[in-house]
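Regression test case RT-17, inverse folding.

Input:
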């Protein structure tokens, strides 16, 4: 089934999603990869406040290439999501409702998706130039020193993804 969703996500929105659904996301989401996730986890472990609010948010696992003149962002393809598996359950328990990446997730992440009524979307790997066309704005919000791995806030319009793990325990990879 094809669905158009305006971000941010909610438990109610996610309850209507099933594995195999083609979804077009519009609105704002964060972009973060390994190094940024580690910094967030370090803050959590130290009991400090995070520089971003995760409630009902979606994180796209991506590190863009530099934008060419006249472009908002460079190539914007997904990163292998399993690299964030050691961080994702904690972030989901803190209110994160969506993740976008590619590849399988651990049982701990899948359990946290169900527990928190979240969703894991896959974006098409190798299609970063095409995916970048659905990104209409991009701003670094923190960790600028990480370059491509800084946390960004992007605005997307009809960003194409597929539901690969839903809050009902569905998993396209199995």
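Golden output:
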């Amino acid at each position: 089934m094809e669905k158009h969703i305006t971000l941010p996500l909610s438990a109610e929105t996610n309850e209507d999603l099933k594995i195999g659904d083609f979804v077009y996301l519009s609105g704002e989401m964060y972009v973060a990869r390994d190094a940024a996730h580690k910094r967030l986890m370090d803050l959590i472990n130290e009991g400090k406040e995070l520089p971003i609010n995760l409630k009902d948010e979606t994180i796209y696992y991506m590190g863009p290439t530099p934008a060419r003149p006249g472009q908002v962002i460079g190539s914007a393809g997904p990163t292998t999501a399993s690299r964030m598996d050691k961080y994702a359950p904690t972030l989901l328990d803190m209110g994160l409702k969506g993740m976008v990446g590619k590849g399988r997730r651990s049982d701990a992440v899948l359990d946290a998706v169900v527990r928190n009524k979240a969703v894991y979307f896959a974006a098409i790997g190798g299609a970063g130039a095409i995916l970048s066309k659905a990104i209409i704005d991009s701003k670094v919000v923190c960790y600028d020193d990480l370059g491509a791995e800084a946390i960004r806030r992007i605005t997307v319009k009809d960003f194409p993804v597929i539901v690969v793990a839903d809050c009902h325990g569905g998993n396209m990879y199995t």
